[in-house]
Amino acid sequence: MLKFLALRAVRYAVMTFAVTSLAYLMAVSFFNPEAQLADIMGGGVDPEVSRANVQDSLRRLDLDPDQNALQRYWVWLTGILTQWDWGRTPNGGYVNDEFAIRVWISTQLTLVATVMTMVIGILLGVYAAARQYRFGDRASTWYSYFTMIVPVPVAYLLVQRGAIWVNEAAGQQIFYVTGFRSIGVEGTWNQFVDMAAHYTVPTVAMTLFGWASMQISQRQYLLDFVNADFVRTARATGLTRSQAIRKHALRVSFVPTAQSIAFTIPALFTGTVMAEMVFNWDGLGSWGLRALHAHDVNASVAIVFYGCIIFAIGAMLADFFTSLVDPRVRL
Amino acid sequence: MSITPISAVENSRAAADELPEQPVEFKPMGKKRLIARRFVRNRLALVGVALLALLGAFALFGHLLTPWHYTEQDFLNLGTGPSAEHWLGTNSAGIDMVALLAQGTRTSLMIGLVVGILTPLMSLLAGCAMAYFGKWVDRTLMWFIEALIMFPQIILIGIIMTGRDGGPVTLAFIMVFFGWMASARLIRGMSLSFVDREFVKAARFMGVHPLRIVWRHLTPNLASLAIINATTSIWGAILAEISLSFLGIGVSVPETSLGLLIYQARSYVFGQQPWMFWAPVIAFGLIVVALMLINDGLRDALDPESRAGGRARV
């Protein structure tokens, strides 16, 4: 077991290194922070002088535009390996510091929504499979397919609009549809109320349009077993249909579900780009997006690395969960 | 999943037993014709095809509906409502909405078609090749697939699209490159059962080139899966394009697409110019409805067990 997981860990470590290095080299050769920074710093009177200024400020941040990709890769790699320093952004921030704040914001945003998505998805999936082709099954499955084809930004915008409409109807600010907290709120209770007011709308949006895939897959997994031979045998021994499903089919159907839960847990910490964009939470996703638009090599690559690690943890958790749930699998 | 001409013959024989007086002539039908027949018998699927054809016509010839080009600004009508000259009004830059919508539908459909055709083809080839060659080809490709799945794709697409100022065509090909892995793994698993069958062995011992075996003997057996995959991946690609454009790392301004139009009109949902937001959303909705109807029809036509396609008349 431990040996298996250790081998997987080594394998994922090698792949993470390769993928991150590739991303760095691609980013260095594609991005052009010089032009972006010149836009921000303004033209100045003499373009030559302003160009020299930009290059000078980049050089001070270890983002020397004159070095070639491999030289910069080497500087960047030694920085990480010796001091765990992921470099600096073109406007002077430290990637390490900014990253930590963003991870926390993203986690806050996704935590409740993820838990609710999973619980509702699994429950509805089981419900739908147990009542196949009856009204409840058809209604919930149709709803799931519908939410899967609605473009995510459109869905979130509609929920946001709905919250604004509620605010207008009530004549006061019940929900906040952007940002994650207000300025200058004091007192624990007031802070809690403020947080809930900011929290509700994105959570509702992400839950309403999030459980579809979980519901559909759980329904499918359970349906695969509802008519299996061992369930029929269990019914022949005198169990009712619901007892047979609960005792025999349900447990088997959780094997693949456990895997997808395993991938979901670490994904909590990556957040969702789209929700952060629409609801204007300054989490990891919107930070990464801004890094991309600012041609920020270090920040983008840090996110690539983070994503790889999250994926590797998820995959290893999936193996671990499977060995827990499924007696046929021995690691 | 294959439909042999024999099953068609059996069907007509069964029908012949019910009506013993009438003499029956057997006309063996090719597999492709049989599938086409079964598909055409499905009314809803035909509605889907018609709808898609209509949308395609709008995408190709929609710019003829208006004298304005989608990059041309009308400075006398900035952000106006529908009028005789601009049927759907203009956006704040004074660009005619009908022209934008036609061009956006064209871009989105183009992306959908490129991704929807190339992705299943690539996964089909890769999956079959992995199953057939085994050994190091299998192992290398598996590593490659795993590395690609590990890559946070939004960031990678962003690096390429913002770094290189890519247009819609670049976006389509990037999406193909990042879209084929999951179904390639699936197809590998399914085609493993075909690799040891007699017809593959026979071909191998006759000295047929391995790539030819993959193409002639393995892929046709999994083609029905790939065809159904194709329709779903078309709307998947259009959906992904909408999200990416909304995030600003998809299609960008001189070009236009449904996603970009939705992004530009995001503050008008029920506001002053709601049609700016709802027109691209409805265009997307129609595309998805058409594809779903076609998908259902194809699934029934390709599945020999299905009775949804109706029975053949003798």
Please give a quick description of this structure.
Chain B: Pfam families: BPD_transp_1, OppC_N. The complex is a heterodimer of chains A (331) and B (314). With 331 residues, chain A is mostly helical.
Low-confidence stretches of chain A: none
Largest sheet of chain A, in brief, is: none
Biggest interface, CB < 8 A? A-B, 37 and 34 residues
Count of helical stretches of chain A: 14
Shape descriptor of chain B reads flat
The CATH C-level name of the domain at 100-330 in chain A is Mainly Alpha
Q: Using only CA atoms, what is the Rg of chain A?
A: 25 Å
- What is the helical fraction of chain A, as a range of percent? over 70%
Oligomer: heterodimer
The proportion of strand residues of chain A reads under 5%
- Rounded to an integer, what's the Rg of chain B over CA atoms? 24 Å
> What pattern of helices and strands is seen along the backbone of chain B?
HHHHHHHHHHHH
Q: What is the tally of beta strands of chain A?
A: 0
Q: How much of the polypeptide of chain B forms β-strand, as a percent range? A: under 5%
What form of chain A results from the Cα inertia axes? globular
Structural class of chain B: mainly alpha
Keywords (chain B): Cell inner membrane, Cell membrane, Membrane, Peptide transport, Protein transport, Transmembrane, Transmembrane helix, Transport
Domain ABC transmembrane type-1 (chain B): 105-299
Membrane topology (chain B): Multi-pass membrane protein
InterPro entries (chain B): BP-dependent_transpt_permease (IPR050366), MetI-like (IPR000515), MetI-like_sf (IPR035906), OppC_N (IPR025966)
